[in-house]
Each structure stands twice: as structure tokens, then as C-alpha cells.
Write a structure and sequence with these properties.
Blueprint: H1 2-43, H2 47-62, E1 68-71, H3 77-90, E2 97-100, H4 103-111, E3 125-130, E4 134-135, E5 141-142, H5 149-156, E6 159-167, E7 181-185, H6 190-198, E8 207-210, E9 233-238, H7 246-254, E10 259-262, E11 264-265, E12 271-276, E13 279-284
Parallel strand pairs: 1-2, 1-3, 3-6, 6-12
Antiparallel strand pairs: 4-5, 5-11, 7-9, 7-10, 8-9, 12-13
Length: 292
């Protein structure tokens, strides 16, 4: 009887141990599958989904009730504006006042019920959030692909913090080849100004092209000269090599009579929030040293 009882006990122990092993293997397999599935899902995110990730994160991390906030322009900044509207509507944010950087952003913000003022009423901002067309390892930016570079710079230069939001396709080793540099110029004798800009030593070798068609892109998609919200024209500088001295290029462009402003944003960026296949990372203040 004792032998039979002992054998039954051993059989039960074996069955229990086997059950534990099976459960462990199954859990490991499921976790491994889910991990691979998660990575696969992350790697197949669309560019708009990546833009939404960084736009929402910027607002969640940097915008608080009572702030004066600069609202950027473009396909990435669109999602930051959307997030501000959501959080105001839910009551999570209160007493926010915003300054838009373009007529397009102004229209979007008004449709979302976001209170707006101009720099005439508020000349200092707590934070501005905007995208960029090109970002180098010094966190210098090229902006203005959407045609709003002057208003963007006017708002963002007087912000205590400027948070740039991009997907990883906008990161580059040096400004220039990755995205044409926009320069806003006066309509008066614009061809003269275009030639002056193209001949500047600091941008030697560039091809200066007058923007045509829709001002919000540089695709030359219409017969008419593109006109900014300020009534000016844009010349896009195309480079085959990185700009050797970004600070000098910014200085020479700004000093050229006929140039209103340019798309180099140097020494202005607090942090860059980057969305990519490996998730979201922050470069600059509170984040990592630029890794690209």
C-alpha cells in the first residue's frame, strides 16, 4: 500500500513539474511573439503616425496650464496643435494662450477653439513647438519648407523653450543636401536678389530657384510665383554638399539687402523629439547627445 501511495505521489509530482515546464515555455513563446509583433508594428508605422507621436509627446511633456504657447506650421506641427485643442477641450489644460505662425495654423487653432493672440499682445512665450525640414548634430535646423519661416522665426526666437519635432528622416550629418534652404525675399527686383544670394561665398555652389505654385512646398507645382503670408517670395537653395559654415551662411544671408529672412535656425533649439523605427528619443536638454 505504501509503495503504491509513494508511486502515485511521484507521478503527481512529475505531472506538476511537466505542467510548470510547459507553462513556462508557452509564456516565453507568447512573450517572444508579442515582442516581435510589437517591433514589427513599430517598424511599419507610417510617417504620419510617427509625426503624431512626436507632436503629442511635445505637448504632453512641455505644455502646462497658464502658458503662452507658439504653434508651428507644417505636417508635423499640425499634430501638436491638434493635441493642444484636445487637452483644452478635456479640461486638462486651462488658461492657455497661443500664437500661430501662419494663416493655416491660425485657421486650424480657431477651429479647435484655441485662444489666440499675436506678438503685439505677448512678446514673450513659454514654449514653441514646431517641425523642421533638416536637423544637424548641432541641433541647427533648416525650416521654411511650408513657406512660414519668417513668422516661425519671429515667434520661436522669443520663446523660453523651442521644441523641435521630427521623424528620423529629417536627421542629417550636415545642412544643405538633405533639404533645400528657403530664403524669403522681397518681390521688388526679385531676380536681382536671387542672383545676389546665389553668389554669396558661404553658399557657394548652390542653385537658387524661385519657388513657384503652392507656397507650402518647393515642388514647382504651378505657373505663378509662390507668395508667403507676408506677401513675399521664396528662393530655395539647392546644395550637393553640406554647408561648411552654417553660422556664416546665416549671417551673410541676413545681411543681403532684399532678403527678409532665411530658413537657418541656429542656436535656438532646446530639444529635438525624434520618432523612428526604434521608438521616440529626445536630443538636447533633458535627453541624449545627438546620435546621428
Amino acid at each position: 500500500v505504501n509503495l503504491i501511495s509513494a508511486e502515485k505521489t511521484m507521478n503527481c509530482s512529475r505531472r506538476f513539474a511537466l505542467s510548470c515546464i510547459i507553462s513556462t515555455v508557452a509564456a516565453f513563446t507568447v512573450n517572444k511573439y508579442m515582442s516581435k509583433r510589437s517591433l514589427c508594428m513599430q517598424s511599419t508605422l507610417t510617417q504620419d503616425e510617427l509625426k503624431k507621436m512626436v507632436g503629442y509627446k511635445a505637448v504632453d511633456d512641455y505644455v502646462r496650464s497658464g502658458m503662452v504657447v507658439g504653434l508651428g506650421t507644417g505636417s508635423t506641427a499640425y499634430f501638436a496643435v491638434e493635441r493642444v485643442g484636445q487637452k483644452l477641450k478635456s479640461g486638462e489644460l486651462k488658461d492657455i494662450i497661443c500664437i500661430p505662425t501662419s494663416e493655416r495654423t491660425k485657421e486650424q487653432a480657431l477651429n479647435l477653439g484655441i485662444p489666440l493672440v499675436t506678438l503685439n499682445e505677448r512678446s514673450r512665450l513659454d514654449v514653441s513647438i514646431d517641425g523642421a525640414d533638416d536637423v544637424d548634430p548641432d541641433l541647427c535646423l533648416v525650416k521654411g519648407g511650408g513657406g512660414a519661416l519668417l513668422r516661425e522665426k519671429m515667434v520661436e526666437v522669443v520663446s523660453d523653450k523651442f521644441i523641435c519635432i521630427v521623424d528620423e528622416s529629417k536627421l542629417s550629418k550636415g545642412l544643405g543636401p538633405g533639404f533645400p534652404l528657403p530664403v524669403e525675399i522681397t518681390p521688388f527686383c526679385y531676380e536681382h536678389t536671387r542672383k545676389l544670394v546665389e553668389s554669396l561665398p558661404s553658399v557657394k555652389g548652390c542653385k537658387a530657384v524661385l519657388r513657384m505654385g503652392n507656397v507650402s512646398n518647393n515642388k514647382n507645382d504651378g505657373p505663378n510665383i509662390a507668395v508667403t503670408d507676408n506677401g513675399n517670395y521664396i528662393v530655395d537653395l539647392f546644395f550637393t554638399e553640406p554647408i561648411k559654415d552654417v553660422a556664416l551662411a546665416a549671417k551673410e544671408l541676413k545681411a543681403t539687402v532684399g532678403v527678409v529672412d532665411h530658413g537657418i535656425f541656429a542656436g535656438m533649439t532646446t530639444a529635438v523629439i525624434v520618432a523612428g523605427k526604434d521608438g521616440v528619443r529626445v536630443a538636447g536638454e533633458g535627453g541624449d547627445k545627438p546620435w546621428w
